[in-house]
Amino acid sequence: MGIAGALFQPLAVIPTPGGPVLHMLRPHSPLLPDFTASFGEIYFSEVLPGAVKAWKRHSRQTQLFAVPRGLLKIVLYDDRPGSPTRGVLCELALGRPEHYGLLRIPPGVWYGFTALGEEAALICNCADIPHDPAEGERRPPDDPAIPYAWESAAQSGER
Fold this sequence. Notes:
single chain
């Protein structure tokens, strides 16, 4: 994946009459959080075409993203002190049809995303702790501290 602690696992898409079944988490998944320690929340966020939801990082929360509808460009940036991948920037596509999988983003890594194509994308986030505004940090999409230029001019907020 390129950033220490960030992992990607392809997920199963099972064809069925009337529409496919899309896996996200299963008991033997290598990315399954330890829910005996804590469970945060699962929520969905819609990303409209042209919208950029960036930048955000968490100090304690691990993100697990899957995109069951649409396609996102997700960008990760590691500026964690002491990280072996400090200064690394990764860009990847996540969603359907070719890039359906589970993305794990560890605490301390900046992330942002935008919908690719003409349709809205739906991202599902399974977080290991409940939403706490005090443990998240935000920066604007054009923050010069992150060496990335978003192609889209439209911007919107993110929870």
